[in-house]
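Sample 3 of the quickstart, ligand calcium ion:
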Amino acid sequence: MNNAVKPRILLVEDDLTVQNLVSTALDLHGYVVSKVCNGQAAIMDAVSHGPSLIMLDLGLPDIDGIEVITKIRSWSAVPIIVISARSEDSDKIAALDAGADDYLTKPFSVDELLARVRANLRRSSMASSESTEASTFDNGPLHIDYAAGYATKDGRELSLTPTEYKLLVLLAKNVDKVLTHTFITREIWGTSWDSDLASLRVFMRTLRKKIEADPSHPKMIQTHMGVGYRMQRL
Ligand code: CA
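Result:
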């Protein structure tokens, strides 16, 4: 961390063991951490201190974590990483659809935690520096020219169907963010039926064949089982 101003992270967690573990790890890596144990305190802190990122446990003693996300999202675009103890996908999906950017499932490693924090801080700083929408996008061998409406891999133009291109652009514009199946199918087809999900899987397979170095071990687009997809920066 070379910046003079250290990013401030709001950690909302009522399990003190996890709270201490996470805050120690963040503190050691140069982040300023403020810790709260419930949803009301989280909203108050977010309003008064404007953190650079929020890490939020979903199971809080006062109000549900999803409600905290909805409230904060009504006025702030701060990155929110959900800490989920629940293994059910439905909680993560509800949190992402309510406006969370990412999630970690307990137990998670410190490396995983730091990687997610870095990726989300990078994404939000890039979003704020790009006041006018970027006209091109680069990620490893992939290049997209939004204005001209085409994509290349290693300098060679990709032959994409209109739906594959739409899907690629959607993932690129949300790079580092987990997008739920519902979000993607709504953006692409305007609906989210089971049949759209089946179509999405098919388009994802054909898109990966065109953009991934090894489509059976995709690196650029990650699958989040039962939740959705994320484009990673290579
Ligand atoms: Ca909890």
